[in-house]
């Protein structure tokens, strides 16, 4: 893997005698390639390599007896730090209910994740209410209702003829009257460049002031993940990210791109289609996975 | 592309950057630009515009797979088996295809063979109702092979022109689920050998390098006849189809450019390449 490639690059360089800054840079080329192949966005890779390079040179990698090992260690540490702390919880609001809204591109896994989060919360002693606020996709409401039914968790719906803001407000009133302490709102998938639909989310945020807005990102997303995450961050107050479909073999570089450009923690990861397939985020594991 | 019309290192670096950021992948991007740099030298081409034009033509050519035929046949019934990983747009693409062929006068039947995901049958059923098309479905949790079997009987008995089969999304790494698809494809070729079978892999333009792995594995398991690249109405370029074309050789037949019934276009290599560099 990458470790072997860096070792090989370093070996070639050491044959020349003392290492130079340029030598360190060329060994880092292997890291750059690995990150790009892992779908980390171009600019994020560039910034990351610059960061690692400065640290490597600053820490005297050039004088080290094992420069290859040192570089790898620095890369792993820097990447793990960047992936962020493990804080896989949805902090409660000062007053109940704690409102959580899931947003993201079409097909990223919002509806399934919404249901998984409800299950997770109930396992932790909470009393969640699911809210079907996707009024566009055929049978989206039914999809959430089927999942809620499966878990015996209530789903608040007003049908497709109401707008998401009204549905959200109705859901919060219902939660208060029913003693539900978490309200999880599933929204329709949308493009970050769809002004009307992004405006709808902005209205939703201004109206119900949720405690959490979570951007759901497909782990197999490519270079464009940075553009998408940036756009959602600019229009909304994001509080966290959820990475889905990590049960596949994608390296998941989009996680780094999204994290770097939003500054938000990755709260959970989806690792399967079943409702129990939600895990806390492990930054070190993700770093290793991305590096391949 | 940079303001300078000269061919300096910056020019080629910029080309590589555009390709990589379009999800063409590092290896293919470097190979494409390396090739074009040598051709520029050999051909004594000095203008950046000319070199870019040459690159675009080469990519468009590599995306034009000669044996690519349109999906529908007029001489025999057509069966479209639509497959792909989770959430890429299979069900929506089926609605678009059904709409297109229905408007062209074909009698189309739908098969709701995603019996697993919550409300998958309801979702396809909604489209069937909107389009006033027949649909074969069982209850959630039923054997998808049984749904397909019934649909094949209906296709024959009702003397229809086309059957489109919706399948559950599945990651290519799930061996048992891929085996299920292979079984479904085998049932179709065994029960209805006289039909023209097209197996379409749906890929999401927002997917990165993993789309190449998806194409490889789906092609290994099934005999794919085409790719549908969806969500090109976003900002992702879908450049991964370039290495896929080189390595897997399956032609892109349609692109999805939105969530409505009309948002399906025939794939055009030149239009795609123009958008790639836009
Ligand atoms: N393998 C796997 N599949 C997942 C995961 N999360 C969601 N899915 C699947 O991905 C597909 C899309 O999930 P949805 O929950 O419908 O996605 P969505 O974001 O709500 O889609 P839209 O509402 O259309 O934007 C479904 O087939 C899900 O079962 C995951 O972690 N792993
Ligand atoms: N913007 C855009 N959205 C699309 C396109 N094609 C599909 N979608 C959306 O993507 C989401 C997922 O579409 P589906 O048709 O349910 O995808 P699927 O592959 O059948 O999903 P599973 O059956 O769960 O694996 C829906 O919200 C669709 O409206 C497209 O070309 N552009
Ligand atoms: Mg949904
Ligand atoms: Mg589907």
Write a brief structural summary.
By secondary structure, chain A is of the alpha/beta class. Chain A has 11 helices and 8 strands.
Description:
The complex is a heterodimer of chains A (292) and B (278). Chain A has helices at 2-14, 21-37, 42-58, 67-83, 110-123, 140-151, 164-178, 195-208, 225-235, 254-262, 283-291, and strands at 98-103, 128-132, 155-156, 182-186, 212-218, 240-244, 266-270, 278-280. Chain A has 292 residues and is of the alpha/beta class. In chain A, helix 2 packs antiparallel against helix 3 (42-58) and helix 9 packs parallel to helix 10. The N and C termini of chain A lie close together (6 Å). With 278 residues, chain B is an alpha/beta fold. Chain B contains ten helices and eight strands. Chain B has an eight-stranded mixed beta sheet with strand order 3-2-4-1-5-6-7-8, with helices on both faces. In chain B, a hairpin with a 7-residue loop joins strand 7 and strand 8 (264-266). Chain B is elongated and about 65 Å long. The N and C termini of chain B lie close together (10 Å). The A-B interface holds A 33, 36-39, 41-42, 105-109, 136-140, 142-147, 150, 191-193, 218, 220-225, 227-228, 245, 247-251, 253-254, 273 and B 17, 20-23, 25-26, 85-89, 116-119, 122-123, 125-127, 140, 171-173, 204, 206-211, 213, 231, 233-237, 240, 259. Residues 90-91, 114, 120, 166, 169 of chain B line the site of one magnesium ion.
């Amino acid at each position: 893997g990458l470790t072997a490639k860096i070792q090989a690059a370093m070996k070639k360089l050491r044959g020349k005698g003392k290492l130079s800054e340029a030598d360190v840079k060329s060994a880092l080329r292997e890291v750059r390639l690995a990150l790009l192949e892992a779908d980390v966005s171009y600019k994020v890779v560039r910034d990351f390599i610059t960061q690692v390079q400065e640290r490597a040179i600053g820490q005297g990698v050039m004088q080290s007896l094992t420069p290859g090992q040192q570089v790898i260690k620095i890369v792993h540490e820097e990447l793990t730090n960047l992936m962020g702390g493990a804080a896989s919880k949805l902090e409660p609001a000062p007053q109940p209910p704690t409102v959580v809204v899931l947003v993201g591109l079409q097909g990223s896994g919002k509806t399934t994740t919404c249901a998984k989060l409800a299950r997770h919360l109930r396992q932790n002693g909470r009393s969640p209410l699911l809210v079907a606020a996707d009024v566009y996709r055929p049978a989206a409401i039914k999809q959430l209702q089927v999942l809620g039914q499966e878990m015996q968790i209530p789903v608040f719906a007003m049908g497709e003829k109401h707008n998401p803001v009204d549905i959200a407000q109705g859901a919060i009133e219902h939660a208060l009257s029913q003693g539900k302490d978490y309200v999880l709102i599933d929204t329709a998938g949308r493009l970050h460049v769809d002004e009307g639909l992004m405006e709808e989310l902005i209205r939703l945020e201004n109206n119900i002031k949720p405690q959490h807005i979570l951007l759901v990102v497909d782990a197999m997303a490519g270079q464009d993940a940075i553009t998408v995450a940036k756009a959602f961050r600019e229009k909304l107050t994001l509080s966290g990210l959820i990475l889905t479909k990590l049960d596949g073999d994608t390296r998941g570089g989009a996680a780094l791109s999204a994290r770097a450009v939003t500054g938000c923690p990755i709260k959970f990861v989806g690792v399967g289609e079943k409702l129990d397939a939600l895990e806390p985020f492990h930054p070190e594991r993700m770093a290793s996975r991305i590096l391949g | 592309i940079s303001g300078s019309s000269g061919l300096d290192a910056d020019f080629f670096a910029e080309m590589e950057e555009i390709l990589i950021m379009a999800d063409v992948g590092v290896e293919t991007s470097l190979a494409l630009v390396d090739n074009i740099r040598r051709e520029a030298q050999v051909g004594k081409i000095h203008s950046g515009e000319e070199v870019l034009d040459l690159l675009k033509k080469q990519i468009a050519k590599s995306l034009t797979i000669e044996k690519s035929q349109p999906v529908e046949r007029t001489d025999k019934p057509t069966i479209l088996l639509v497959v792909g990983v989770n959430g890429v747009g299979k069900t929506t693409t089926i609605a678009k295809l059904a709409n297109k062929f229905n408007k062209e006068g074909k009698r189309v039947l739908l098969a709701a063979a995603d019996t697993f995901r919550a409300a998958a049958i309801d979702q396809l059923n909604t489209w069937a109702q909107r389009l006033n098309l027949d649909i074969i479905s069982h209850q959630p949790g039923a054997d998808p092979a049984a749904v397909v079997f019934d649909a094949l009987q209906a296709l024959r008995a009702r003397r229809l022109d086309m059957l489109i089969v919706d399948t559950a999304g599945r990651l290519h790494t799930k061996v048992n689920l891929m085996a299920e698809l292979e079984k479904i494809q085998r049932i179709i070729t065994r029960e209805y050998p006289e039909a023209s079978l097209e197996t379409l892999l749906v890929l999401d333009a927002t997917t990165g390098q993993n789309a190449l792995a998806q194409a490889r594995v789906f092609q290994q398991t099934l005999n794919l006849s085409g790719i549908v690249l969806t969500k090109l109405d976003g900002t992702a370029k879908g450049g991964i189809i370039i290495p896929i074309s080189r390595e897997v050789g399956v032609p892109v037949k349609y692109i999805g450019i939105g969530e409505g019934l009309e948002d399906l276009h025939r794939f055009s290599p030149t239009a795609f390449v123009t958008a790639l560099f836009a």
